């Protein structure tokens, strides 16, 4: 069983910074990609940033230049969030695309989410 756990959420004022961390653990053969999604109240979950094993990185237009994603082969990812805005408020979910050691089959796993609140 693969477990994905986020940490680092909290409350911050406009213009502040937060760093979210994510760890994927379990019978993982390799990590193909790790991503961060955000879900604001009443909205659908949307992709914020995604990093692949081949160093390809994508960001949502709304966070380009303010957020930085990183990941490593050990299944760890971080999302550095700077110049935060009220519209960045929401629950942030980590997603890990991994190949299992047991079956060499790829699956996508989600964390439970961590709340980020940006206030004026």
Topology record:
Blueprint: E1 3-7, E2 10-13, E3 18-25, E4 28-39, E5 46-52, E6 57-59, E7 67-71, E8 76-81, E9 90-100, E10 106-110, E11 114-119
Parallel strand pairs: 2-11
Antiparallel strand pairs: 1-3, 3-8, 4-5, 4-9, 5-6, 7-8, 9-10, 9-11
Short characterization:
This protein has 120 residues and is mainly β.
Describe this structure in words.
The protein has no helices and eleven strands. The protein has strands at residues 3-7, 10-13, 18-25, 28-39, 46-52, 57-59, 67-71, 76-81, 90-100, 106-110, 114-119. The strands form two sheets. Strands 2, 4, 5, 6, 9, 10 and 11 form a seven-stranded mixed β-sheet that branches. The chain has a four-stranded antiparallel β-sheet with strand order 1-3-8-7, with no helix packed on it. The chain is elongated, with a radius of gyration of 14 Å. 30% of the residues are buried.
The percent range for strand residues is over 45%
Major sheet, described briefly?
A: 7 strands, mixed
Shape field: elongated
Question: Mean pLDDT, nearest integer?
Answer: 96
Rg over CA atoms, rounded to whole Å, is 14 Å
Quaternary structure of the protein:
single chain
Helix share, percent: under 10%
Order of helices and strands: EEEEEEEEEEE
Count of beta strands: 11
Flag low-confidence runs.
none
Distance between the termini: 41 Å
Number of helices: 0
